[in-house]
């Protein structure tokens, strides 16, 4: 997502580099490039217009002419304005003073509501909450089971009507009322079982229709949600604007969640929705796994689009997997040249927990170039390294010097690789250990 936009914007801003003073013509030319880049990324026209006029106004003002480095100043302005259209500061969920906090999800079918329900529940659980999922999508076949499955994976409970039985057990016909009744009973269940958050999954249609809106309104009125999230598939391009507007009028929402940011769409929806609806983007999903989900940070997203990297997100991810004490121990071992293959395996597994290496590189400033230069990092190769180390005995991992010819043969057989692969790994490990220890010495670690 945003790749071509990112390329074009950084390209446009690169042209300014090295210029001591910026003429009005320079600024106009850059603004034109930025405008084209945004339009090509499917950003809605009114948003593009407003954006360009703000950037131009600021760039022509004192902010830039009096700056030591005018080009850098323009980048800062574009960054600030991009952050602003993405919503400024991240907004957090407003939890009810009297639990449970009710969060309703609305959006088109396929937008990713059910998947999101699981991700959000998982995330909330990680923050110490006790969410309950309530299955009110009784339209799409399988939606109830799907929610139950994501709930199980997230380790949270799901309140759902049993398949094939009517909701009340009183033989009531399946009708518009049914999802409302499930919602109400789900809420009552949450109160009784002390769940502090209730996430209500609702039905969507492939297109907007009045019946769906009426049903969503019915659920909304019955459970009085504290937050209603409009779930928007970032891949749908220009249609996003119409859909968002229909939901704003039909049900209303307090926040937007963008899904499928991992796709290769141009990203205009993401850039337009906040400005057009006046509602903040609160979370973003970028994959099908439970962990592919995070609070949406406008400033970080902007930095990422402008190729300035997203070091903050990287640090946060690192903090979730690395333990400070352990890291210190490892650093000491590196310094004294005592690093073992066991340590190496631990480190590698921790880094890989943070996601595919390519994604990590993409978060570094200039990381996109690095990612392009390195090409596709072969995750299979990393798997192979892990397999080889796992094929070693604890003694071998602790003291790789004892790995002689016959041990190498055994390890190769055991991990399904050739002896050459094992040799390479062991040799490189010794080289790397020497180099790291020397570097640590130089840096005075
Ligand atoms: P719903 O109809 O709104 O409940 O949508 P679903 O939750 O069933 O999602 C529709 C499809 O999109 C499923 O195949 C999901 O796995 C997929 N999906 C949801 N979120 C994401 C995401 O962030 N990235 C990707 N790549 N796929 C997603």
Offer a few descriptive terms.
445 residues; flat; 3 domains; eight-stranded mixed β-sheet; 9% strand; binds guanosine-5'-diphosphate; Rossmann fold; alpha/beta; 434 Repressor (Amino-terminal Domain); 21 helices; Four Helix Bundle (Hemerythrin (Met), subunit A)
Question: What's the multimeric state?
Answer: single chain
Q: Return the string of H and E elements.
A: HHHHHEHEHEHEHEHEHEEHHHHHHHHHH
Ligands bound to this protein structure: guanosine-5'-diphosphate
Level of helix content? Answer: 55-70%
Share of β-strand residues = 5-15%
Overall number of structural domains: 3
Please list the strands of the largest sheet in the order they lie side by side. 3-2-4-1-5-6-7-8
Can you tell me the CATH topology of the largest domain?
A: Rossmann fold
Provide the CATH architecture of the largest domain.
Answer: 3-Layer(aba) Sandwich
Strand pairing plus helix content: what structural class?
A: alpha/beta
> What's the alpha carbon Rg, rounded to whole Å?
26 Å
Number of strands: 8
């Amino acid at each position: 997502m945003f790749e071509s936009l990112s390329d074009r914007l950084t390209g446009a801003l690169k042209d300014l580099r090295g210029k001591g003073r910026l003429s009005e013509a320079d600024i106009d030319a850059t603004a034109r490039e930025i405008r084209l880049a945004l339009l090509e990324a499917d950003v809605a026209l009114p948003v593009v217009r407003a954006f360009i006029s703000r950037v131009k106004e600021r760039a022509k003002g004192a902010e830039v002419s009096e700056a030591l480095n005018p080009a850098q100043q323009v980048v800062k302005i574009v960054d600030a304005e991009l952050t602003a259209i993405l919503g400024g500061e991240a907004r957090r969920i407003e939890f009810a003073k009297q639990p449970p906090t009710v969060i309703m999800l609305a959006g088109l079918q396929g937008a990713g509501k059910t998947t999101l329900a699981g991700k959000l529940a998982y995330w909330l659980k990680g923050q110490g909450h006790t969410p309950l999922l309530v299955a009110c999508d009784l339209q799409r076949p399988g939606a109830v089971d799907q929610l139950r499955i994501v709930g199980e994976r997230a380790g949270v409970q799901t309140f759902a009507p049993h398949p094939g039985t009517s909701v009340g057990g009183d033989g009531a016909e399946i009708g518009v009322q049914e999802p409302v009744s499930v919602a109400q009973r789900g809420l009552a269940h949450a109160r009784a079982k002390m769940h502090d958050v209730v996430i209500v999954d609702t039905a969507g249609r492939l297109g907007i229709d009045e019946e769906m809106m009426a049903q969503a309104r019915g659920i909304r009125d019955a459970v009085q949600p504290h937050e209603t999230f409009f779930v928007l598939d970032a891949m749908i391009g220009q249609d996003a604007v119409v859909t968002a507007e229909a939901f704003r009028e039909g049900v209303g929402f307090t926040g937007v969640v963008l899904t499928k940011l991992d796709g290769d769409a141009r990203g205009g929806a993401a850039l337009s929705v906040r400005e057009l609806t006046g509602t903040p983007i609160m979370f973003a999903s970028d994959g099908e796994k439970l962990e592919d989900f995070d609070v949406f940070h406008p400033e970080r997203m902007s930095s990422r689009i402008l190729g300035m990297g997203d070091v903050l997100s990287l640090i946060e991810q690192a903090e979730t997997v690395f333990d400070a004490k352990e890291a210190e121990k490892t650093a000491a071992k590196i310094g004294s040249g005592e690093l073992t293959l066991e340590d190496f395996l631990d480190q590698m597994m921790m880094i890989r927990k943070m996601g595919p290496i390519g994604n990590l590189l993409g978060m570094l400033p200039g990381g996109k170039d690095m990612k392009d230069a390195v090409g596709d990092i072969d995750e299979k190769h990393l798997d192979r390294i892990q397999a080889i180390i796992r094929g070693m005995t604890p003694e071998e991992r602790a003291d790789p010097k004892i790995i002689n010819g016959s041990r190498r043969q055994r390890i190769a057989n055991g991990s399904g690789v050739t002896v050459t692969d094992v040799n390479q790994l062991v040799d490189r490990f010794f080289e790397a250990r020497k180099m790291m220890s020397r570097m640590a010495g130089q840096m005075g670690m």
